[in-house]
Amino acid sequence: MSDQDRYVPGVPCWIDLNVPDVEAAVAFYGGLFGWEFEDTTPPGAPVRYLVALLGGGTVAAIASQPEGRDRAVAWDTYVRVADADATAAGVRAAGGSVLSEPIDIGDSGRTALCADPDGAGFCLWQARGHRGAAVVNEHGSLNFNDLRTRDVGAAGAFYGAVFGWELLDVGGGYAWALPGYGDFLEQRNPGMRAGMAAMGAPERFEDVVASVRQITDHEPPRWDVTFAVDDADAIAARAADLGGRVLAAPFDAPWVRTTVIADPQGASFTASRFVPGNKDVAESGGA
Question: Hey, which CATH number is domain 141-278, 3.40.50.150, 3.30.465.10, 1.10.150.240, 3.10.180.10?
Answer without folding.
Answer: 3.10.180.10
